[in-house]
Amino acid sequence: MTDKDKVPEKIDLNEILGDQDDAPRGDEIEIIDDGEQARAFEDLTQPLPAGEAFSREDSLREETDRYKDLWVRARADFENFRKRTEREREEESVKSGALLIRDLLPVLDNLERALAKAAPGDAFAEGVVLIHKQLQDALFRAGLRPIKAAGEPFDPSFHEAVVTEATTAFESNLVLDEIQKGYTFRGRVVRPALVKVSVRGETHKGPDGGRFDED
Questions:
Q1: In whole angstroms, what is the distance from residue 76 CA to residue 43 CA?
Q2: In total, how many domains does the chain have?
Q3: Over the stretch 17-72, which tens digit does the pLDDT of each residue have?
């Protein structure tokens, strides 16, 4: 008798459970013999047909490409987030530093005014010179830079004209004099330079006694 002709043995649950009232009758458990287990294993290990194998390979490739695309997108998003965070942190640092610089600039101005009025050889003035240089060097290391003014073309981005002077000796919109120094901090203007600007033409008296210039 071959394995195909064998009939699977059946176990009657009634024989195991007895005549219990709650036990279902007629339920049986089918026992699979070793031969059927071997054939089932062989079916599972058989190579897939060519068409089905290619279909599964394409599906795996598509799935791999999809996850790779998601990974690339996630990495790009993280890189953009990192750069944006660093840029915002830098901007916040510049803003907070600029606020401190604005508070210190009047101190620098007053030291320079004191030195301008000091008598030559004054020992006290020499001490002020050292204090001024120490403060100035500290601010310059932090990123403070003076704005060029006298002799430069007037630039409203860096200069604020508080006085105009009509003249024929210079071209128009030239900074003739610096009234108050201007500064930038890390490339940003923290205080524009207050300047006198040339205007081509002669100065005349207006009807109300005010001045106006003609080209």
A1: 46
A2: 1
A3: 555 555 445 445 555 555 666 666 555 555 555 555 557 777 788 888 888 888 88
The candidate with the shortest Cα–Cα distance to 164, out of 210, 206, 196, 203, is 196
* Residue 192 structural domain: 146-208
Residue 188: CATH number of its domain: 2.30.22.10
Distance CA 145, CA 28 (A): 95
Three-class secondary structure assignment of 137-158:
HHHHHHCEEECCCCCCECCCCC
Structure pTM?
0.55
Cα–Cα distance measured from residue 89 to residue 39, given in angstroms and rounded to the nearest whole number: 68
Helices (H), 118-211: 123-142
Please, which contacts does 149-154 make with residues 24 or more away whose CB atoms are closer than 8 Å? 149/175, 149/178, 149/181, 149/182, 149/193, 149/195, 150/175, 150/176, 150/177, 150/178, 150/195, 151/175, 154/195, 154/197
Tens-place pLDDT, residues 99-121:
889 999 999 999 988 888 877 77
Q: What pLDDT is recorded for position 201? A: 67
Q: Measuring CA to CA, which residue among 108, 126, 132 is closest to residue 180?
A: 108
Nearest residue to 185 (alpha-carbon basis) of 95, 110, 109: 95
For residue 46 the two structure tokens come to 């058989």
